[in-house]
C-alpha cells in the first residue's frame, strides 16, 4: 500500500515515513558529520539528560558563532539552571487554566475564519484556518497587532527554508554566508519586536510582552535582547508548528475516511486523534543537542563536543515502542509520542496547541461532512527537512 508520505511526496529522504526501518537506532552520518538518533528509547535518553546532551552547547560547537545578543533569552538554547528560571516566567502564562479560558475566543475565531475562507465549494485550509488561527491567538497573547500577521509569515519562511539542514561538514565560508542571510532575514522581525518591547516599558498593558518587560529573574529585569528573543520563540514556535498540526490532521483524516467518520460520530475522541497526528506526521521533526562528554548511546560511543540530531519523527515510528507503527490509528491510546519533545524543554505551548487542534477539528468535522483534499490541486509541504507539515492544503467542502 502506498504510504501517505509517498502519495504526497513528503521529504523523500525521510525513509521512515515510507515504512523503511533504520538499520540502527543511533548512527554517525558521514554526510552531515552529525550523530543521528532514530530510536524512541535512545531519543528519550538524550532528551532526559541535558547535562550530557546540552542545548546551549549546540551553538558553542557550531562552526559559526551566533552573537550573544541573538541568543539571550532563547529558552530553546538554554541549559539548567538558567533555563529553569526563565521557563518559570512563561509556564504560568500557558497554564492549563489560562489556556482553558481561551476556548470561547478560539471557537469564535475558528467560525469567523471559516465563514470568510469558504469560497463556493473550495477551502484553502492553511490560508483560511490553519495559519491564521494560531497566529492570531499567539499575537493576541503577546499583544501584537493581528493585522501584522502577513509580515510574520514572510519572516518565518526565511527561517525555515530548504537550506535549514544541520551539517558540520559544510565549509565555514558557506555556513557564514547562509547564516548572514538568515540574520539579515530575521532582522526586521527582531526590530519589530524590539519596538514593541520598548513601547511596553513605557506603557505596560495586560499582555505577555508587558509581562516579560516587568518580569524579574534573581531580582533583575530582563534586558531588551532577552525580551525580544523570548518573544521571537513564542511568536514563531507558537504558530508554525500548530499550523502544520492542523493541516496534517486534516490530511490524515482525509486518507482514512473510516476513522474520520468515527470521529464525527464521537467528537470526544478528537484529542486522541490529534496526538496520533503528532506521532504520524511530526511537525517539529528533529531537535539538535551537543555532547558535553563521551557517552554511550544505542551501543555507540559518541565523543564529546559532537552534534546529535534527534529525529522525533523517526522515533515516533519506532516499532519497538509503537505497535503497527506505520498505521495511522486515531484511537491509539496511550500514545507516548515525542511530538512535543520530552524532559525539561517539553513544549510550553502543548496545552494551547492541543486546544486549538481540538476546537478546529471539531468544527471542521461538524460543519463540513464532505470535506476532502481537492482532487485537482495537491497539497504542498514545508521545504525544511526539520519540519514535516503541509504548507498549503486546497480542499473541497462539497
Ligand atoms: C518547545 C513542538 C506548539 C512554545 C517545543 C519542543 C517541541 C515543540 C518538540 C521541544 C524543543 C526542544 O526540546 O529543543 C511543538 C509542536 C507544537 C508546538 C509540535 C504544535 C503542534 C507550541 C505553541 C507554543 C510553543 C503553541 C507557544 C505558545 C514552545 C516553547 C518551547 C517549545 C516556548 C521551548 C520550551 C523550552 O525550551 O523549555 N515545542 N510546539 N509551542 N515550544 Fe512548542
UniProtKB/TrEMBL annotation:
One MF term in the entry's GO annotations: cholest-4-en-3-one 26-monooxygenase activity
Entry's Gene Ontology BP terms: cholesterol catabolic process
Cited InterPro entries: Cyt_P450, Cyt_P450_B, Cyt_P450_CS, Cyt_P450_sf
The keyword Lipoprotein belongs to this UniProt entry's keyword annotation: no
Keyword Metal-binding appears in the UniProt entry: yes
Keywords, ordered alphabetically: Heme, Iron, Metal-binding, Monooxygenase, Oxidoreductase
UniProt cross-references to CDD domains, sorted A to Z: P450_EryK-like (cd11032)
Source organism superkingdom: Bacteria
Database matches in SUPFAM superfamilies: Cytochrome P450
Family affiliation: Belongs to the cytochrome P450 family.
PANTHER family listed in its UniProt record: BIOTIN BIOSYNTHESIS CYTOCHROME P450 (PTHR46696:SF4), P450, PUTATIVE (EUROFUNG)-RELATED (PTHR46696)
Protein name stated in the entry: Cytochrome P450
Organism of this sequence: Saccharothrix tamanrassetensis
